[in-house]
Each structure stands twice: as structure tokens, then as C-alpha cells.
Amino acid sequence: MVKEKVILKNETGLHARPAGELAKKAASFKSSIKLNVNGKIVDAKSILAIMSAGIKYNTEIEIECDGEDENEALAEIVKDFKNNFGE
What we know:
Order of helices and strands: EHEEHEH
Strand content: 25-35%
Structural class: alpha+beta
Helix content: 25-40%
CATH superfamily: HPr-like
Radius of gyration: 11 Å
Oligomer: single chain
Number of domains: 1
Number of strands: 4
CATH class: Alpha Beta
CATH architecture: 2-Layer Sandwich
Number of helices: 3
Distance between the termini: 29 Å
Shape: globular
């Protein structure tokens, strides 16, 4: 299991488009990928779960990946957060 904390820098928060991008990217990996947001743990492969977390600008998020491709999954998802999902 690998973990890393990131800060969401999208001024509009993790709304539908970036949440969809995140869920699509997470689903491309075999590992389990969870987001820990203010103590609430959500499945990063589910756009509905991500949206239900209501992640706002400047929120700290811990990304947790567990499985055979966990390191690659974590690196790719952290990269997307740092690139603000292209926004």
C-alpha cells in the first residue's frame, strides 16, 4: 500500500469534469484507489463517490493505492492533481 497527500488547487473544486477524469484514470488500474478527504474515504473509481465528497479548493486529500500496480497508479493520479486536471 502506498499513500501520498496532495492539495486540490482547482479553484472550482473537484466538479464533474475533473471528477470524471479522475474516476476514468483510477479505473484504468488494477489497484484499489481510495481518497481520504477530511476523514471520509471514497472510491476513486466512482465518479458519484468523488462528487459526494464535495471536495473544494485548497482541500488536503490523501490518495491511497493498494495492489499490483499501486506505484504507477499513485504516480499518475498525483500528476493529474498537480496538473489541475488540465484546467
